[in-house]
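Q: Sequence in, structure out?
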Amino acid sequence: MAADRDGRPTISAARHGSAGILPIPWAYLRMMGAEGLSRATGMAVLAANYVAARLRGHFPVLYAGNKGLVAHECILDLRPLTKATGVSVDDVAKRLIDYGFHAPTMSFPVAGTLMVEPTESEDLAELDRFCDAMIAIRGEIDLVASGHWPAGDNPLAGAPHTAAMVSADEWTHAYPRSVAAYPEGVDRGAKYWPPVRRVDGGYGDRNLVCACPPPPSYEG
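A: Exactly. Output:
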């Protein structure tokens, strides 16, 4: 913390800069207390190790200790599968949307991996739902590896699938609409439909487009 020319405290050299976020962790710490924080930490570590234990037989888990334990996150290594099948971490992340999940952190701290941080807030049913989805996705990757689905035309390469896509009159893919729309284990009554298909994130990062109205429209 620094001070401005009038002696008022500032955060990161900008008056009122990051100070607005500080009441949130302060309130969390006060409400949880020492006992609550210890329990939350233990639950987060337990949840991450549960995910690691369930998925270790399907995906390599990086940075585990000598007893196979991880900390509050587990890193699933997809690089061997990508090398063998061409299915990328992006494909798995987009396919998770069809299963109703926002993807975990991608390619950090290791490129080609997923870093899963379930935190203390996820219950066992939700952890199992995520693990079941990842295991089902591994099964889909195996079908690509076996040649059942082409490397460039499979549910992972085509994900995510919108309602407009799977309900269109024409379907030219090597996999059925039902697999695209309703992956294994997905509750049809609670299906999440993504509003858009896959976008080129790398291109978007390098070619920013302003979505706001043009400046002249603000003139009185």
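Residues 45 and 154 are 35 Å apart (CA to CA).
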